[in-house]
Amino acid sequence: MNSLSRLQVIVILLISLCMLLVASPATAGDPVRIVDGFVSRVSDGNNLTVVTKNREKLNVRMYGIDAPELDKIHRKSKRIIKPGQPFGIEAKSLLSTMVFGQDVRLFVMDVDSHKRMISIIWAREKNIFTKNVNVEMLKAGMAEAYNEHLIDGQYRKLFLDAEQEANNKKIGVWSQGLLYERPSVYRTK
């Protein structure tokens, strides 16, 4: 009995150590949490709401991408305060087609100041979570790689390559040529 208790203590310590290592900055590019849930809302081309099996609502911002902005509408008057960017509606539509009403897996990379889960979204292909939705948005030209927030690691090159592929094909936002304005710049106006 005594040796079993020691073994249990060792196992608990090892698991605790592994959890600390996963959450540490030394493993940049690895998720800090993995969550499964159901997409109940798509707000725009890079924000959605996921409901977990425990009925917890998570506001999710897609990691490493930035999609064109939608019209900004006044809540009371319902008037457009600021028009959206080209491809904003198309980006939301594509994301909705891929994930709305679907089960997804979130690789939570961080939590931002708005308490959104900054996540890589995985959709099912043949009952397995293998479709990286963030990359699919980039490949379709419906978002740009958000360089300022891409941590060096396993996803940075993948995201930048996906963006370059769409840019080379001149599809989506990249079809605008020199008229294209980054969403991060547009938001500052």
Written account of the structure:
With 189 residues, the chain is α+β, with helices and mostly antiparallel strands. The protein has one domain: OB fold (Dihydrolipoamide Acetyltransferase, E2P) (Beta Barrel), CATH 2.40.50.90. Helices cover 32% and strands 29% of the residues. The chain contains five helices and ten strands; from the N terminus they run H-E-E-E-E-E-E-H-E-E-E-H-E-H-H. It has helices spanning 2-23, 88-99, 133-139, 156-169, 183-187; strands spanning 33-42, 47-52, 57-62, 65-66, 72-73, 80-82, 103-111, 117-125, 128-132, 144-145. The strands form three sheets. The chain has a five-stranded mixed β-barrel with strand order 1-2-3-8-7. A hairpin with a 6-residue loop joins strand 5 and strand 6. The termini are far apart.
Q: What is the tally of beta strands?
A: 10
Overall tally of structural domains: 1
Total of helices: 5
Radius of gyration: 19 Å
- How many strands, which pairing sense, and closed or not: the largest β-sheet? 5 strands, mixed, barrel
What average pLDDT do the residues reach? 89
What strand line-up does the widest sheet have? 1-2-3-8-7
Helix proportion: 25-40%
Provide the structure class: alpha+beta
Principal-axis shape equals globular
* SSE string: HEEEEEEHEEEHEHH
Using the coordinates shown, work out and report the CATH topology. Answer: OB fold (Dihydrolipoamide Acetyltransferase, E2P)
Poorly predicted regions are: 17-28
